[in-house]
Amino acid sequence: MFYLSQTFEKMKTLNLDEKIKREIIQSFGEAYKAFGLSKLMGHIVALMIFSPHPLSLDDICKQLKRSKGPVSQIIRRLRDKNLLRKVWVPGSRKDYYEAHPDIFENAFRNNFDLIKKNKKLAAELKQKAKKSDHEAISEILKRLDEMEKFYTVMVENFQDFLDKWNKLKAKYRS
């Protein structure tokens, strides 16, 4: 009887862990979708964050119940953005993946790069617009000037954030 109650308690814990895992995966999918990205990308990121050990492509597909093609493409994109990394697992010839140790910082840096590009774009468009004789050019120039100032403030604040994060990270990782 004691054995059965231990088994039942173990099953309840596993079910709770599985529920939490599913909720995290679903929440990340919704969050990624809200940012205009693929739900599947969010599911993969969540799975990798939740996983205590590296996973193969087959493992990821099996756990998410998805086919290899789209999962493989997204893993490639996530690796390109330094959110996942390929790792070696002794005794296996398969490719394994894990969340990059700096996954959150790298996601922030990816967004920061986009902000810097938008700032540069505003400056370039403003220079081109100055050469125009379009009748509404003054209004267009005002908007481009505001765009450039907006992204300048964002770049400054994002850089301040990264500076603070790097100090904090150095303390807690040492």
Ordered list of secondary-structure elements with their pairings:
Layout: H1 2-34, H2 39-50, E1 55-56, H3 57-64, H4 68-80, E2 84-87, E3 96-99, H5 103-130, H6 137-173
Could you explain how this protein is built, in words?
This protein has helices spanning 2-34, 39-50, 57-64, 68-80, 103-130, 137-173, and strands spanning 55-56, 84-87, 96-99. It has a 3-stranded antiparallel beta sheet. The mean pLDDT is 91. It has 2 domains: 2-99, Orthogonal Bundle (Arc Repressor Mutant, subunit A), CATH 1.10.10.10; 103-173. The chain starts with a helix and ends with a helix. Helices cover 75% and strands 6% of the residues. A hairpin with an 8-residue loop joins strand 2 (84-87) and strand 3. The protein is mainly α. Helix 1 crosses helix 2 (39-50).
Q: What is the number of helices?
A: 6
Shape: elongated
Q: Report the sheet with the most strands, covering strand number, pairing sense and barrel closure.
A: 3 strands, antiparallel
Decide which structural class fits the backbone.
Answer: mainly alpha
How many separate domains? 2
Q: Would you list the SSEs in sequence order as H and E?
A: HHEHHEEHH
Rg (C-alpha, Å) = 23 Å
Mean pLDDT: 91
Any idea what the CATH superfamily of the largest domain is called?
Winged helix-like DNA-binding domain superfamily/Winged helix DNA-binding domain
